[in-house]
């Protein structure tokens, strides 16, 4: 499909940021999966020497499958470049991430990197963040109280919508790699993303949120016709 083509060409271009000897943060999601496959080819066919730091168990599995040496963030200590997807990005390269439920490890790995490169199809570019539901990772203990407190807090915030919903996996709550739950906030439009990110993480029970503010350095945008544009 045109969207798959767009994701593939963005992923293919993004591996230009990877050099021999690098520690590479490996993102999560369908676009990042293309990037992992492209890197695997370079490792197996061109002898590219890299160590991959995955942002989810499923990315770790795929990386091993395609022949990439996987190490933990603790072993890597620091990362040269992280390549990951996003659900939305705006003109300041601020992001909403977490559609795939890996936002906690993704944000930790991205923050521990010299450079963060985001790869997306063109449909992810927005004027204002918030049309995509904002994922918030919460510990399971007291999650309904946390949800109510967040909805109450949102009343005083510059947003269009204030509903939060527990992300489900079939008939049970979705559980993250760390064993936490995710609340998706249906905000419609976030007036001040920096403030929203700060305020949410002050809430007891909240582990992390999907707003990536001042973290992304470059966005590589793929189009259905095979074109690629870079935003930095
Ligand atoms: O969960 C995530 O943050 C993923 O990177 C997601 O936002 C992008 O997934 P996609 O590449 O499958 O659209």
What is the gist of this entry?
It is an enzyme of class 5 (isomerase). By secondary structure, the chain is α/β, with parallel strands linked by helices.
How far the N terminus sits from the C terminus, by CA atoms, comes to 27 Å
Shape: globular
Roughly how many Å is the radius of gyration?
Answer: 17 Å
Total number of strands? 16
Structural class: alpha/beta
Strand and helix order:
HEHEHEHEEEHEEHEEEEHEEEE
Strand content: 25-35%
Number of helices: 7
Pfam family, one: Rib_5-P_isom_A
GO molecular function: ribose-5-phosphate isomerase activity
Keywords: Isomerase
Catalytic activity: aldehydo-D-ribose 5-phosphate = D-ribulose 5-phosphate
Q: Can you put this structure into words, describing what you see?
A:
One of its GO terms (molecular function) is ribose-5-phosphate isomerase activity. The protein has helices at residues 2-14, 30-46, 57-65, 73-76, 103-111, 143-154, 193-202; strands at residues 23-26, 51-54, 69-70, 79-84, 88-89, 95-96, 113-121, 134-138, 163-166, 168-169, 172-173, 181-186, 206-209, 211-212, 218-222, 228-231. With 232 residues, it is of the alpha/beta class. The radius of gyration is 17 Å and the shape is globular. The relative contact order is 0.18. The mean pLDDT is 98. D-4-phosphoerythronic acid (DER) binds at residues 27-32, 84-87, 97-100, 102-103, 106.
């Amino acid at each position: 499909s045109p969207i798959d083509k767009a994701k593939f060409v963005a992923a293919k271009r993004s591996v230009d940021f990877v050099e021999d000897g690098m520690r590479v943060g490996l993102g999560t999601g369908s676009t990042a999966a293309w990037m992992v496959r492209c890197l695997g080819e370079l490792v197996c066919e061109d002898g590219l020497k890299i160590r991959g730091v995955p942002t989810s168990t499923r990315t770790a599995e795929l990386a091993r499958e395609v022949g990439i040496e996987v190490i933990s963030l603790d072993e890597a200590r620091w990362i040269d470049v992280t390549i990951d997807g996003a659900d939305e990005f705006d003109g300041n390269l601020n992001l909403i991430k977490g559609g795939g439920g890996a936002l906690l490890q993704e944000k930790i790995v991205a923050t521990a990197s010299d450079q963060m490169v985001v790869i997306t199809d063109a449909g992810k570019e927005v004027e204002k963040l918030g049309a995509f539901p904002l994922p918030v990772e919460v510990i399971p203990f007291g999650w309904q109280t946390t949800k109510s407190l967040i909805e109450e807090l949102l009343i005083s915030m510059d947003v269009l919508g204030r509903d939060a919903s527990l992300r489900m996996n079939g008939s049970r709550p979705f559980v993250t790699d760390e064993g936490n739950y995710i609340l998706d906030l249906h905000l419609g439009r976030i007036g001040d993303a920096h403030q929203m990110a700060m305020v949410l993480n002050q809430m007891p029970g909240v582990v992390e949120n999907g707003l990536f503010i001042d973290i992304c350095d470059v966005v590589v945008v793929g189009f259905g016709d095979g074109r690629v544009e870079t935003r930095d």
